[in-house]
Amino acid sequence: MTLDVEPPSPPELSPSIDPNEYDDADVVGDDNDYRRDELSAFLSEGAWEEAFAEWAADTDVTADEWAIVTDLGLGSDFDFFWDDFAGRVGYHAPGLPQDWKEQEVHPELSSWKQVSSINAGLTELGQTVCDVLKDDYIEWESEYEAPDDLPDF
Fold it and tell me: I want to staple 77 with a disulfide (CB 3.0 to 4.6 A). Which of 24, 31, 94, 145 is the partner?
């Protein structure tokens, strides 16, 4: 299914956010060099729009669901960072809370199906952005080197 909407603005990546603090983080190390400035430049230079177009061509997110995402400002509320240890782009996708009903997050939000579709779609968008960055924009290699004193197994 194709989602025919304008992409949101690229996210503004904040150097003050430590990816290790995310509940779903899988970042090893604490070098604090997440290369957000370079990633932000790549996003602004076209990676964001390229990835969004690729994602929108195959997403299951509907236009009505995307309208909710847009109303809530979630479309550009991602975080991307370089995970040097793993040699990959990591990300944190925004999402709707589990207590969306109690919080009355949005008047058009009426089912767990919508919530699941939106959250899954945002996760897929984040991964697509990571893939586009890694495949088409990033030319640097991981600088992590394993210590010499690791035990043999």
Answer: 94
- Across 42-55, b (16+ Cβ under 10 Å) vs e yields bbeeebbbbbbeeb
Domain-located, residue 77? yes
In which domain, by residue range, is 95 found?
31-137
Whole-angstrom distance, CA of residue 108 vs CA of residue 149? 57
| pLDDT 10s digits, 38-95 | 999 999 999 999 999 999 999 999 999 999 999 999 998 999 999 888 888 999 999 9
- Give which of 5, 4, 7 is closest to 76, Cα–Cα: 7
| Domain count across the chain | 1
The residue with tokens 């697509």 is 128
- Locus of tokens 């890694």: 134
pLDDT in tens, 58-67: 999 999 999 9
Token reading at 110: 């009426």
- DSSP sequence for 123-152: HHHHHHHHHHIIIII----------TTPPP
Q: Is the pTM of this model over 0.90?
A: no
Domain membership of residue 50 (yes or no) is yes
